[in-house]
Amino acid sequence: MTVLSPVRASTELRGSTRHGVAFWLIAAVYLVSQAFSTVPTPLYPIYQREDGFSAFTVTIVFAVYAVGVVASLLLAGHVSDWAGRRRILVPALATQALAGVLFLAWPALPGLVIARFLTGLGIGMITATATAYLLELHTAHRPAAGRARFDAVSAAANLGGLATGPLIAGALAQFAPAPLRTPYVVMLVLLALAIVAVVAVPETVIAPEVRPAYRPQRIRITRGSRTAYLVAAAAAFTSFAVFGLFTSLAPGFLAGSLHHGSRLLAGAVTFLVFATGAAMQAAPGKRRLTSGLIATAAGLVVLAAGVQATALWPFLAGGALAGAGAGILFKAAIGTVVGMAAPHERGETLAGLFLFGYLGLILPVIGVGVATQFVGATTAMLWFAGVMLALLAGVAILHRAGRAR
């Protein structure tokens, strides 16, 4: 079987303005899709009040979303390597739009669970596909340039979108009518525009002469060090765990233990954590992983102090610092894996990395949610900080061992 390289090699298209415009359009599409995934974050306290469910139920709703992401990554995250980037992005965005309609039409708990699962399915298809698409468009537009622009824009679009969603939703829920409807209406309009943008941009994948047999996602490393990949996967796991805390239980902790029930504040806190992570995409590359580990650890310590003292400002400062460190870790992980991936395996290799990342989004947050059934929210948050610090130490040891080899 002959499988052609997925990246278009047409010299007449390389360096074209069309690919430059497409690069920024796909970055915007990626940002919008990620923003949609975090819109419910500042709305969870409203859902809790209206439907009367607990913080543990919020954890389950969040976990359902992450399960949808993982299932999608396993089943479809790598398919764009041979099916084409646009053929995956359009149905993925349409799946998110369907979730938006469900949020509007069925605001009760069952509808919320189904809508979050559909959101996860869409995100699982988008993350690896959009990241690979951005790299290919960047290469087509600037064939002689390095990857610095891609590294910064891809991670910033991901984290910037995750930051923007809660801020928009929190502001609309605070000041606009129908707080459980208006944010989704706005996002549905943006998703429709995103679909139009994807249809308009050039494809970067040439379909193989013989379509390969379908198989679920697998973790395969054909180039580079397995230890380096494991370090990148552990860094992604840790960074997503930090972000997951602020997209699930942190708004409830603000409203409950810290007695700050503002919807705008709930969205702003999540925005702060993700925005600092996105801002760190411009950080220099030298010793990036080490600086990310240190910043994340320091932020978790400050966050734990704020939780213990039930004080807002240390909580915010710790979240911002931990978010900055997690952003650096995420960028380091993306850079490592992209550098190891063969061109025709980019989607598959990135899907594997995001699979580890979203497992980090699921497991620690579920652990905190379960812990709140037996201990107070403060104790559960302190346990989370302790487990994350131990994991960061493990990543540092593994990274040092890999460098020594």
From TrEMBL:
Q: Where is the Major facilitator superfamily (MFS) profile domain?
A: 21-405
Membrane-spanning intervals of the chain = 21-47, 53-76, 88-108, 114-135, 156-178, 184-207, 228-250, 262-280, 292-313, 319-341, 353-374, 380-398
Q: Which organism is it from?
A: Paractinoplanes globisporus
Q: Which InterPro entries match?
A: MFS, MFS_dom, MFS_trans_sf, MFS_Transporters
> Transmembrane: present as a keyword of the record?
yes
> What UniProt keywords are attached to this protein's entry?
Cell membrane, Membrane, Transmembrane, Transmembrane helix, Transport
Q: Where in the cell is it found?
A: Cell membrane
Q: Is Transcription regulation found in the keyword set?
A: no
Write down what this protein is called.
MFS transporter
Pfam families referenced in this protein's UniProt entry, alphabetically: MFS_1
Superkingdom of origin organism: Bacteria
Q: How does it sit in the membrane?
A: Multi-pass membrane protein
